[in-house]
C-alpha cells in the first residue's frame, strides 16, 4: 500500500463511514485521489464494496497496535527562564494541568498503558507520576552534558511500536491512535522562515534550501517494530562517538539531508510547543506559573504591573549564572540569576562592594538593582553590543587597555584572592571524590612547582576582575560614532596580582599556538614592553588559572552543569603552560648564567 492508501485505510478503521466524500473531507484530500485509493483498497481486499474494512484489514489493525510511548523529559528547558529555576518544563501547566499529565492521559485514552518516562533535570519532581499513572521511570545520567540523542538511548530497548514524545508540546487534539500502520515524524502545516526541514507533496521530509521556508517541528514520532530495529542500531552507532554529544535524537532517522520516514502533518491549531516564557504567556496570559519571585523583583524595582514587563528572552547560557532580557516602558534590561552551586563560589556582598567602587567610572554596566543575598542583578542592556573578538588584535588591544586602566586605578576591596587556597578549595568541593583526570595529582604538582617563582616575582595586589575572559568585554556604540568597551560580571573580583587577568583572557578559548597568543595579550597590555620576568609570570598564571578553572569545572559538572569542551580545554592548558614556563625558564636561567660568566 502507498502512504495515501494506508492513511485512508486507517481512517476507515477509525470511522464508521461509507461515503467517498466523507473520506476526502476527513483527510483533506481531493475526491479524485480518495476514489482512486478506495478502488485499489477494494481490489486488494482491504475493504468491501461499502468501504467497510474486511477481516484482512482487521487482522492488520490488531497487528499494528502501538505498544508503548517514550516521553523525553530530561532537559533543562533553559529558554523557559525564569520559570525553569523552579520546575522542569514538562510540569508547566496549561488550563491548570501539567503538560506531561495532559499528554499521558491522551496516550492512555488511545489504549496505550506502557509509558516510559526518561528524566534528568529535577527528576524528583516527576516521581509522583509513577504512582498516579503507572509510568516506568528511566534516568538519563548524560542529560547535563549531552543532547536528547542520549536521552532516547536510555530507552533504546522500548523503541518497537512506540511513540517518541516530547514533554513540552501541548496537543489540543490527541495525536495518539489505537492503530498505526507505518512510521512517521510529525510536522505542522505552518510554514516558518527559521524552519530547518520541510515536507514535500509526497510527504518526504527534507532539509530546507537557502531562501526556503520550513515546517514547524513538533517532534512527535512513531516507529514500527521494523523501523525501530534499524533505528536502534543507528542509535548505538551514534552514541558511541563523542562528537555526537550535541546531536538530537532525530539523527537516527535522518540520512543525507532527508528523513527515512514520512511526515504526518497536522494543522497549527492542533498543537503548540512551549519553549519560552513569552510563549506560555501568549497561550495563557494569567497562568499563575508566570508569577514568581524573579518577576516580583522586577515589578518592585520598576514599580510596574506584570503586564508591563514584556519580551522576556533568554541570554545564552553562562557558565556561572543564568540571565534574561526584558523590556519595561520601551527600554531593555538584563537580569542575572545565580546558577547551580553559586553560593559556594561567590561572595555576593563583596561583589556588591566592587560595583559601588566602579560606579560612574565608565568601566562596566552600572547596576539598577543588586541584592547581595539572592545574587539577583539588573542592569540596562547594552544595545547593539558585541563580545570582544579574541582573534582580532585591535579588540585584544582595547580590552587590555581597559583592564590596565582598572589596575592602575589601584582600587581597594576587602575581598582577597589566594590562588593556592582557591585551587584547593574547589578541589574540596568534590567531597572526597578523586579528580576525573587520572593524571591530576602529577599535573597539579607540576603546576605547584611554579609557586616559588610566582611568590618571588608577583606584582602588588590590586582590584582584579577574576573572570577576565573575552566574552565579558562588550563593545557597544559610543556617542562619538566609535565603540565603547565595557567589562561586565565582576562577581569573582578580588585583590590579586593584576597579571592574573591577562591569563584569564588568554586561556578562555582553545588556541593553536598558546604561547604566541599569550605573548600577544602581554604585548597589548604592555605596549611599551615588559621584562622577561613579567612574561614568565604570565605563563605561570596561565597554568595556575587554568588549574583553578579546571577544578571549578569539576565542581560544576558534579552539579549537573553542561560545560561542553570548556573543561577539557582548561585542563589541557594547565599542562601546556607548565611546559611553556619550564622551557622558557630554562632558557632564562641559562641566559643569566651565561651573562655571569
What structural class do you assign from the helix and strand content?
A: alpha+beta
Distance between the termini: 94 Å
DSSP strand (E) fraction?
Answer: 15-25%
The coarse silhouette is elongated
Radius of gyration: 30 Å
- Poorly predicted runs of 5 or more residues: none
Give the number of helices.
19
Give helix % range.
25-40%
Give the beta-strand count: 25
Describe this structure in words.
By secondary structure, the chain is α+β, with helices and mostly antiparallel strands. It is built from 19 helices and 25 strands. The model has no long low-confidence stretch (mean pLDDT 91).
In short:
With 597 residues, this protein is an alpha+beta fold. It is 39% helix and 19% strand. The mean pLDDT is 91.
Main traits of this protein?
597 residues; alpha+beta; seven-stranded mixed sheet; five-stranded antiparallel sheet
Question: How are the SSEs placed, and which strands pair?
Answer:
Elements: H1 3-14, H2 20-27, H3 31-43, H4 55-63, E1 68-73, E2 93-94, E3 97-98, H5 99-109, E4 114-119, H6 128-133, E5 136-139, H7 148-153, E6 162-166, E7 169-171, E8 184-192, E9 197-199, E10 205-207, E11 214-223, H8 225-239, E12 254-255, E13 258-259, E14 263-266, E15 271-273, H9 277-283, H10 293-302, E16 309-314, E17 321-328, E18 331-338, H11 348-358, E19 367-370, E20 377-380, E21 386-387, H12 393-409, H13 419-428, H14 440-448, H15 451-457, E22 462-464, E23 473-477, E24 483-487, E25 494-496, H16 499-507, H17 514-525, H18 532-558, H19 566-596
Parallel strand pairs: 1-4, 1-6, 4-5, 8-14
Antiparallel strand pairs: 2-3, 6-11, 7-15, 8-11, 9-10, 12-13, 16-17, 17-18, 18-20, 19-20, 21-23, 22-25, 23-24
Helix pairs in contact: 1-3, 2-3, 12-17, 13-18, 15-18, 16-17, 16-18, 17-18, 18-19
Amino acid at each position: 500500500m502507498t502512504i495515501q492508501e494506508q492513511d485512508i485505510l486507517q481512517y476507515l478503521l477509525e470511522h464508521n463511514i461509507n461515503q467517498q466524500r466523507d473520506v476526502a473531507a476527513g483527510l483533506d484530500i481531493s475526491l479524485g485521489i480518495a476514489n482512486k485509493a478506495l478502488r485499489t483498497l477494494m481490489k486488494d481486499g482491504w475493504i468491501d464494496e461499502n468501504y467497510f474494512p474486511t477481516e484482512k484489514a482487521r487482522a492488520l489493525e490488531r497487528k499494528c497496535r502501538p505498544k508503548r510511548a517514550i516521553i523525553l523529559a530530561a532537559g533543562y528547558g533553559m529558554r523557559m527562564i525564569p520559570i525553569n529555576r523552579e520546575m522542569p518544563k514538562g510540569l508547566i501547566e496549561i488550563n491548570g494541568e501539567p503538560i506531561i499529565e495532559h499528554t499521558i492521559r491522551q496516550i492512555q485514552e488511545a489504549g496505550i498503558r506502557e509509558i516510559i518516562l526518561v528524566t534528568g533535570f529535577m527528576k524528583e519532581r516527576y516521581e509522583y507520576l509513577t504512582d498516579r499513572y503507572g509510568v516506568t521511570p528511566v534516568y538519563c545520567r548524560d542529560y547535563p552534558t549531552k543532547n536528547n540523542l542520549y536521552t532516547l538511548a536510555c530507552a533504546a530497548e522500548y523503541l518497537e511500536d512506540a511513540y517518541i514524545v516530547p514533554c513540552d508540546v501541548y496537543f489540543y487534539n490527541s495525536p495518539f491512535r489505537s492503530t498505526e500502520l507505518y512510521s512517521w515524524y510529525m510536522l505542522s502545516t505552518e510554514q516558518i522562515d527559521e524552519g530547518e526541514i520541510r515536507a514535500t507533496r509526497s510527504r518526504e521530509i527534507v532539509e530546507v534550501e537557502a531562501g526556503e521556508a520550513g515546517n514547524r517541528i513538533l517532534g512527535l514520532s512513531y516507529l514500527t517494530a521494523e523501523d525501530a530495529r534499524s533505528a536502534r542500531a543507528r542509535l548505538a552507532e551514534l552514541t558511541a562517538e563523542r562528537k555526537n554529544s550535541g546531536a538530537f535524537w532525530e539523527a537516527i532517522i535522518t540520512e543525507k539531508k532527508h528523513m527515512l520516514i514520512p511526515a504526518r502533518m497536522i494543522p497549527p491549531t492542533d498543537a503548540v510547543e512551549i519553549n519560552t516564557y513569552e510563549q506560555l504567556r501568549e497561550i495563557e496570559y494569567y497562568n499563575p506559573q508566570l508569577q514568581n519571585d524573579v518577576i516580583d523583583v522586577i515589578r518592585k524595582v520598576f514599580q510596574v504591573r506584570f503586564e508591563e514587563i514584556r519580551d522576556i528572552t533568554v541570554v545564552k547560557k553562562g557558565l556561572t549564572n543564568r540571565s534574561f532580557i526584558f523590556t519595561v516602558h520601551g527600554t531593555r534590561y538584563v537580569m542575572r540569576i545565580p546558577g547551580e552551586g553559586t553560593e559556594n563560589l561567590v561572595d555576593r556582598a563583596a561583589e556588591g562592594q566592587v560595583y559601588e567602587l566602579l560606579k560612574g567610572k565608565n568601566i562596566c554596566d552600572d547596576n539598577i538593582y543588586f541584592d547581595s543575598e539572592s545574587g539577583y542583578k539588573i542592569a540596562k542592556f547594552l544595545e547593539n553590543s558585541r563580545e570582544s573578538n579574541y582573534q582580532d588584535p585591535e579588540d585584544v588591544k582595547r580590552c587590555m587597555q581597559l583592564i590596565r586602566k582598572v589596575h592602575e586605578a589601584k582600587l581597594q576591596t576587602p575581598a582577597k584572592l589566594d590562588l593556592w587556597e582557591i585551587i584547593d578549595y574547589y578541589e574540596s568541593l568534590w567531597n572526597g571524590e578523586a579528580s576525573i583526570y587520572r593524571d591530576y595529582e602529577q599535573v597539579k604538582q607540576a603546576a605547584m612547582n611554579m609557586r616559588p617563582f610566582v611568590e618571588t616575582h608577583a606584582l602588588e595586589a590590586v582590584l582584579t576582575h577574576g573572570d577576565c575572559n573575552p566574552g565579558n568585554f562588550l563593545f557597544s556604540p559610543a556617542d562619538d560614532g566609535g565603540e565603547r568597551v565595557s567589562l561586565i560580571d565582576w562577581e569573582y573580583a578580588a585583590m590579586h596580582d593584576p597579571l592574573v587577568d591577562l591569563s584569564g583572557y588568554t586561556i578562555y578559548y582553545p588556541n593553536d599556538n598558546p604561547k604566541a597568543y599569550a605573548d600577544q595579550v602581554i604585548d597589548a597590555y604592555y605596549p611599551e614592553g615588559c621584562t622577561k620576568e613579567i612574561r614568565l609570570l604570565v605563563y605561570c598564571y596561565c597554568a595556575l588559572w587554568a588549574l583553578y578553572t579546571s577544578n571549578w569545572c569539576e565542581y560544576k559538572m558534579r552539579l549537573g552543569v553542561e560545560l561542553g569542551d570548556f573543561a577539557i580545554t582548561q585542563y589541557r592548558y594547565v599542562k601546556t603552560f607548565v611546559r611553556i614556563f619550564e622551557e622558557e625558564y630554562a632558557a632564562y636561567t641559562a641566559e643569566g648564567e651565561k651573562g655571569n660568566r
